[in-house]
Amino acid sequence: MAFLLVPELHLLDLAGPAQVFSTAAGLGYGYELAYVAERPSVPAAQGVTLTARVDWPELGRDDLILIPGWRAPRLRVNGRLAPQTLERLRAHHAAGGTVASVCAGADALGQAGLLDGRRCTTHHAVQDELARIYPRARVVRDVLYVVDDRVVTSAGIASGIDLALHLIAARHGPGAAGRIAREMVVYARRNGDEQQESAMLRYRSHLSDVVHRVQDIIDARFDEPLPLAGLAAAAGVSERTLTRLFGEATGMTPLRYQQRLRVERAEHLIGQGATVEAAARAVGFQDARMLRRLRAR
């Protein structure tokens, strides 16, 4: 993946997503990070000068280009990109790749014409200006991020972490995103239209090592059959003890916790366009009947 650096960029706009993907790489998910700019030295808004390569790495359709935001009391003050850079963004998207932005970085996607006819968002301070400059864009307010046809835009500063965790979850599943979020000590949040706390973290505010170990197993393999006996053996306790400890820590049984993860993941897939039947199969249900029943609760 490549980060496109623009002068006066905000460090957290870059560092947040970079930390997510570098943590993913360290956990074995195969990411290689490149930092590209139109000039080899890029001043940040916080007074640090960054270095970047001026030649683009070879990118395929599975790669991501992410544009951190920059200091923008008004969008047109900074962030003007050269025609060849904008063409690079258009060509990557046209070839099936994903492009993403944090904060004012949405302006770069707008310059490339990639916001036309698409839903998008940006920092609340420049939402009105983005809508005015790009009248064909459909600016969504008060959400963390928006996904529309491999164009992913996020709100200000720290929401870049939410965006990056979403992209990890979409590609590798929520277990991977939850694992990275725990490594970074952040909440795994999703779109503002959906629940903003993942079940993986909502039921982690306890001190039981046994329950945390079992939750780790369920998080990673929630789409598989996980008999209580196997979970108890992995935790080194009896089935009765596991059920008691799990209930005390989370207020539910291991099976109910697994079902919540399945439903949460299925809701995400349905929100991305999957049918209920396809989502049910993807999360481990034999058919859609159980998923419909659980969603109705």
Automatic annotation (TrEMBL):
Superkingdom per UniProt: Bacteria
Any Pfam family: DJ-1_PfpI
Keywords: Transcription, Transcription regulation
Residue stretches making up the HTH araC/xylS-type domain: 212-297
GO MF annotations in UniProt: DNA-binding transcription factor activity; sequence-specific DNA binding
Record bears the keyword Transcription: yes
SMART domains found in the cross-reference section: HTH_ARAC (SM00342)
Keyword Transcription regulation: yes
Protein name: Transcriptional regulator GlxA family with amidase domain
Species of origin: Thermocatellispora tengchongensis
Taxon lineage: Bacteria, Bacillati, Actinomycetota, Actinomycetes, Streptosporangiales
